[in-house]
Every structure is written in C-alpha cells, then in structure tokens.
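so my prof wants the structure for this chain in the tokens format not the other one, which i didnt know existed until like an hour ago. anyway here's the sequence
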Amino acid sequence: MTARYRVLPQVKFKGFRDLERRRVQASDAVWAILVGSKLACQTMAEAPDQLALLADAYPEVEHVQRMNQRLDRAAAILDRAEGDVCTMALSFTFGLHEDFLRACLGFLVPLGLITPAAIRNANSAGLHEKVGEVTGRPVDADALALFHLTRHIRNAHTHSAGLVRSTLVDYYASLDAPKRALWESVTSEPFRIPIMGESAAIGSSGLVGSLAIQKRLAYDVNVALQNVVPRDRWADMAADEYFEESSKSVKDPTALRSLRGYVRGCFDALALSDVELQAAIDRRK
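here's what i got, hopefully its the right format
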C-alpha cells in the first residue's frame, strides 16, 4: 500500500497536514492504550494476592475505584479489551477522514464544481466517489473497496450490536482475489469471511490496515484536487496559510522570500514560481 502512493506528489496544505497529524495522534493514543493494558496485565499477574480488589492493591491509581474487580478478573478484562479499543479507534479515524473529504470538496465550491448543499447532502459512504465525479480522477478502486469493507465493519458496531450480519458477510464474499490479497498485505492476516452472528472484530491488525487504506485514499484525493484546482488558487492558499500563521506583513519587502521558504516542503509538488507567489502576495495588498 505504501509503495503504491509514494510516487504521487502531495500538496501538503494545512487541512492535509492537520489530517496527517491527527491520524498520527489517534494512532499513538491507541497503541499507548494497548501497550499500557499489556503492561498492566503483566504487573497484576505478578501481584501475590490475585483475589485482592484492584482498588486495594493500587489505591494511588486515578479512577481505580471505578473498576471494582479482583486483580485476576481485571487482568482478564484488560487482556480482551484490545478489540473494543480498536473498534472505537476505527470509528474515530472514520470521523477524521470524512471531515477531510468534506473539506476537500469545499475547496471546489468556488470553482463551481459542486455546491455547498451537494456537500451537505452527500452520503458519507459516497464521498470518495463524489470527489472522483467532480474532479475527473477517481481514487484507487481496490483501496476504495477495502475502505467500504471497514465501513461495513464499523456499521456493524454502530447498527448491529457489533455482530456480523448478512450485509457484512455478503460484502466480504463479493471481494475478488486482488482485493483479498491487498487486505492480507495491509493487515498481515489471512482473509477470512466471517460467520453470521459472531463478533465483527477489527483487531489491531485490521486497524493498521484500515489506517493504511485511509491514508492511500487521502493521497488519491490530494492528487485529484491537483487535477482541478488552478495554480493561482494554490498560490493563494499558500499565501493565506503563511500570512495567517506569521506576523509578516504582505507589504514587507522580504515577504516573497519568506513565503518561498514556507511553501518549501509543503507545496513542492506544484513547483510554484516566484512570479506566482508574488502575484498571490499582491492580491493581498
């Protein structure tokens, strides 16, 4: 999955950078919780009295009174909490990704490619397709199919008490060999069609795969924007970001040099010229 998008140059505008940062923060939080739970299990397993209450054994730990369990039972709860943590993280990352997609579609409103009402009314399940429709550059079909797989898993927890229903089984079964192989590649697990009534588990491997898929699709959306947003609009976006974040005045004689430094690393994919950047500055005077 990584190798498939590295060749696509990215415009790292503020919204894209924010998505990357928040995705990393969410990922770090999940792994911190999972590692912390494993360490807690190990610590509790070493306690001499396994029948002692958690609050009696560790009274100094914040919130411990809310878990009125014996050490052995508390350790068992923590040991199987991984699936619940990953499921919650999946829902959170879906929210981040959807916000990003709607913001990207918002960039296209001034260009007359889409209306605010169309964005508001767009079904969250079809936002990637909407981006492809209005930009003329669809996202990767295999990655999109796997995104919808993880969306069905998320929906099972949102609408079906976390249990596998026929809709999820049918979607798994509909995936062809290349998509199944891609899923195995990003999760490092065998592809398995779930059984009706069992838990719609995502697990840490599935979460890793879901994050990789979302990242690939975000990169595809970025390239799709490059396909339709005019260069002067990109220059304006870069200038807006810089002058909003800095104390530099557009009338400062060094403004061009400063803006040139700001776009380096963020807007390299566009190779904006000094003439284009100066024009963006002039439009703000």
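also thought this was worth mentioning. The mean pLDDT is 92.
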